[in-house]
Amino acid sequence: MTVMLLLLGLALLLVGAEMLVRGASRLALATGMSPLVIGLTVVAFGTSAPELAVSIGAANSGAPDIALGNVVGSNITNVLLILGVSALIAPLIVARQLIRVDVPIMLGVSVLALVLALDGGIGRIDGAILAALLVGYTLLQVRLGRSDPAAGDTALDTIDGPPRGTRAWVMNVALVVGGLALLILGANWLVDSATLIARQFGMSELVIGLTVVAVGTSMPEIATSIIATIRGQRDLAVGNVVGSNIFNLLGVLGLAAVVSPTGIPVSPAAVNFDIPVMIATAVACLPIFFTGHSIQRWEGAVFLGYYVAYTAYLLLDAAGHDALPDFRLAMLWVVMPLTALTLAVVTGRHLRSRAAPPTNTPDGSP
Fold it and tell me: With contact defined as beta carbons under 8 Å apart, do 85 and 226 qualify?
């Protein structure tokens, strides 16, 4: 019965997110918002609505570890799993704005979350600061969209045309309201069942939030990015992930801390391991994104491999398995250095190729 409730909760989250994104996107187009703003705010924020509903529900129901684990786990899942799988399907194109603006912002707010958590919790004032930064980020996107209204045209390909007439407006508002209602109901079922499962298997609420709940609430991002990749809208696949990660940290974590009576307590395990892993995934995006403005298949395979290793570490840690120390040493002294060396070599080659003078053909033409 508990597993059934978990599955029903996930199903309602998916259906509710689809309704919310569809209705909100149509309404945004009708108000004249640029495609760039729609792709990086409405679509990205809409697919993060399950994380918002789950984290606020968890904070209100006395399960703050699930609220924090959901945000951190979703961000790690978005980069390692979603971009990894999408890049394996086809190399991903990275827009220049993402490299220059959004990815650095994602890295910055990831570090900010760690700084705020160092005292053992993210209080209401911290949450208000994060929420205020989300408002600033949204206004920045509006400004950038106005300066380049043609940017992000591919976002329109996944959105139906703008509503026409009063009946269409009413239908789209109903989609938004109905989607929110399903999200709230699904979030409550998911949090209740996930908490019960965690206790039955002896797993901490943080681990269940980092794995089961994180993957479940990331399903809209997974579906959006994979479908966008298959349809050839690969820049949208990357923008959806980056925008969702920023919204998770600023909006989801911020609002969850504001509505929680005691804020969001942060365990030493999250400060010492999970949040640094989240920051590391954001750092890994920088050299991969700016070298060639794309994510190649082998880079996607590296991301996916790291996600498998991270999940294995969480499960071994939760079970107290004897192999955990050896696994940790292998990650710290073998896998991580090799990956860092590979990224350094790729970055060095890219910088040298840009600094090298252009070669001329025998006839003297460049």
Answer: yes
DSSP string, 51-114: HHHHHHHHHHTT-HHHHHHHHHHHHHIIIIIIHHHHHHHSPEE--HHIIIIIHHHHHHHHHHHH
Integer Rg of the chain from CA: 21
Q: Beta 92-93 vs 294-295: how paired, if at all?
A: antiparallel
CA dist 17 → 25, 52, 184, 216 (Å): 12, 11, 11, 12
CB contact at 8 A, 21 and 47 = yes
Class at the top of the CATH hierarchy for domain 2-349: mainly alpha
Read off the tokens for 12: 């309602």
The per-residue pLDDT string of the chain (366 residues; one tens digit each, 9 = 90 and over) reads 788 888 888 888 778 877 877 777 677 677 666 555 666 777 777 778 788 888 888 887 777 778 888 899 899 999 999 999 999 998 887 777 788 888 899 999 999 999 999 998 899 999 999 999 999 998 888 787 666 555 544 444 444 454 556 777 888 888 888 887 887 788 778 777 877 877 777 777 778 787 777 877 777 777 778 877 887 766 677 888 888 999 999 999 999 999 888 888 898 888 988 899 899 888 888 877 776 677 888 888 988 988 988 888 888 877 777 887 887 777 766 666 666 766 676 677 666 766 666 555 454 444
pTM of the model: 0.78
Query: What is the rounded distance in angstroms from the CA atom of residue 246 to the CA atom of residue 78?
Result: 11
Domains in the chain: boundaries: 2-349
Question: Integer distance in angstroms from the first to the last C-alpha of the chain?
Answer: 70
